Amino acid sequence: MEWLIIYRKEEEVNAQKVSTVLARYGIEASVLETGEVKNLEDENINLKIKTATHVIIYDNLLLKDDSICFFYGYLVAKAIKLYTLQNEWSGNMKYFKNVSVFAGAQEMLDKIESQIDEIKVEDKSRTAFSDLFNEGIPFTADCFAYHVGKDNRDICQKFIDAGIDVNCKTSEGIPMLNVAVRSNNSECVKWLLTFNVNIDEIANDRGYSAVMDAVWKNNIEIAKILVEKGARLDFISRDGQSVLVLAVGAGKEDMCRLLVEAGADPDIKDEMGMSAYEYAKLFKRNDIVDILDKYHKD
After folding, report:
1. How confident is the model over 127-151, as pLDDT tens digits?
2. Of 44, 173, 224, 237, which is least surrounded by CB within 10 A?
3. Strand 81-85, strand 99-102: pairing
4. What is the SS3 assignment for 72?
5. Could you read off the pLDDT of 248-283 as tens digits, one per residue?
């Protein structure tokens, strides 16, 4: 974002004050006295006016100088945000959502400072969206999922910065966390978990949660990550299986140990009326029976 401060000579102190406040937040603003604004033959001044995205005007006498009014009108039309003192045309500014009018310099300064964090977030979002657009990447859940699956973290971060919901689903109803799990992408799983992602969201296709997908993919590393982050282990999938039944059915001893030690109940019945413990005995998996036996209730 490009900040531009325009001031009339008698407002120089206020202009410098707001410039100092912006600098404190890492924002470097261009500062022009009203007499300089008209000097468009100066390429540097011309560029500052053309590229300004956030404008602060300390001038309550602007209609006294018709040659400046044109530039103010231009900035009102193009700026993302414009802050100005009350003046002869400020009454008309109620029609412009990007313009804020203030009775005094201190009131304006306080408002600007209170909005800086919000402004930075908005600017980050606009920049990220623009970057995606310029790279030809549609801002959709399916495209986000593609890059999650490929662990293109830089691009995924741009989706997040641009405002996509981390809990969105693909057109097939698959949550992003499940996409990462099914891609055996442990680093992306950990990255997604740093956001406000619903760890227990259910995929519409299989009816599995992310931890069930990890068990289905026999990825104990990812299963451990999800278990440590508090994934539910008592969930019954659409096909009637618990996560532990799924692990027993796959015959994965280490996975069964991880799940039962984390609190998975070996006695939860599936839709067939069978528990993980009973399946282990049925399949004659004595190694798994031994693991579950400690947690089995007679």
Report:
1. 999 999 999 999 999 999 999 999 9
2. 44
3. parallel
4. helix
5. 998 989 999 999 999 999 999 988 889 999 999 999
Who contacts 257 (Cβ-Cβ below 8 Å, separation ≥6)?
291
User: What tokens does 155 get?
Assistant: 């691009």
pLDDT value at 298 more than 70: no
Contact (CB, 8 A) for 177 and 199: yes
For 107-122, what is each residue's pLDDT tens digit?
Answer: 999 999 999 999 999 9
Give yes or no for a contact between 68 and 34, defined as CB atoms under 8 angstroms apart. yes
Torsion angle, CA of 113/117/121/124, rounded to 10 degrees?
A: 70
Look up residue 96 and give its two tokens.
Answer: 């412009």
- Name residue 55's beta-bridge partners: 4, 82
- Asked if residue 175 lies in contact with residue 183, where contact means CB atoms within 8 angstroms, the answer is no
Question: What span, in angstroms and rounded, lies between the C-alpha atoms of 170 and 152?
Answer: 17
State the pTM of this model: 0.79
Number of Cβ within 10 Å of residue 68's Cβ equals 20
Note the pLDDT of residue 21: 94
For the four alpha carbons of 234, 207, 171 and 132, in that order, the dihedral sign comes to positive
